Amino acid sequence: MDSGRIPSTLAKFILDHVEICTQGFAGLLQRLMHWSADMRANYIVLSPDPISYFHRHFHKYPLLEFTPGEQTDAYLSSLQEDPGGSPADAVGINWWEIVIVPPSSKWFVHGLHVDDGVHLWVPQSYSLEIAKTYPWAHRSAQDNLGVGASST
């Protein structure tokens, strides 16, 4: 779906990859969990490989859980946490591909450290609120059918 080859009823917003590590993005995650009534969202590093890199070197997987009401400082600290003797390998620093997903699967984030960065996929009904409250996210030119318009 993120490649754009499969039509979707979800709205796609694009962010710079550095946004993941900002207070503004932490606030956006809080709003997304509130809107979707999720009690958590999981941040998972897909590359470097969770097994052959993270687990092999640190005996843990690159997974974080965020909950509603969590302070932005706690979010940012967890992204910068040393996995074990290598601060440069914190999951907010050493990633080439990540996803952030809630249990409801109503929305998700897919991030690549290259190309056009981080994609936030949300129900069309969230589009206006995201546009009003998070100005760093924008619709791509091909998807910019007007906020709230269907892209199917």
What does this structure look like?
This protein has one domain (16-137). It has helices spanning 23-36, 50-58, 72-80, 127-133, and strands at residues 11-15, 41-47, 63-66, 97-101, 108-112, 118-122, 138-139. By secondary structure, the chain is α+β, with helices and mostly antiparallel strands. It starts with 10 loop residues before the first strand and ends in a 13-residue tail after the last strand. Strands 3-2-4-5-6-1-7 form a seven-stranded antiparallel β-sheet, covered by helices on one side.
Helix vs. strand class: alpha+beta
**Main sheet: strand order:** 3-2-4-5-6-1-7
User: Got a strand count?
Assistant: 7
Q: How many domains is the backbone divided into?
A: 1
Along the chain, the helix and strand elements come as EHEHEHEEEHE
The proportion of residues in beta strands is 15-25%
Mean pLDDT: 89
Helix content: 25-40%
Q: Which term fits the overall shape?
A: globular
From the structure above, extract its key features.
152 residues, 7-stranded antiparallel sheet, disordered C terminus, 26% helix, alpha+beta, 4 helices
Detail the topology: elements first, then pairings.
Blueprint: E1 11-15, H1 23-36, E2 41-47, H2 50-58, E3 63-66, H3 72-80, E4 97-101, E5 108-112, E6 118-122, H4 127-133, E7 138-139
Antiparallel strand pairs: 1-6, 1-7, 2-3, 2-4, 4-5, 5-6
Helix pairs in contact: 1-3
Tell me briefly what this model is.
This protein has helices at 23-36, 50-58, 72-80, 127-133, and strands at residues 11-15, 41-47, 63-66, 97-101, 108-112, 118-122, 138-139. It is α+β, with helices and mostly antiparallel strands.
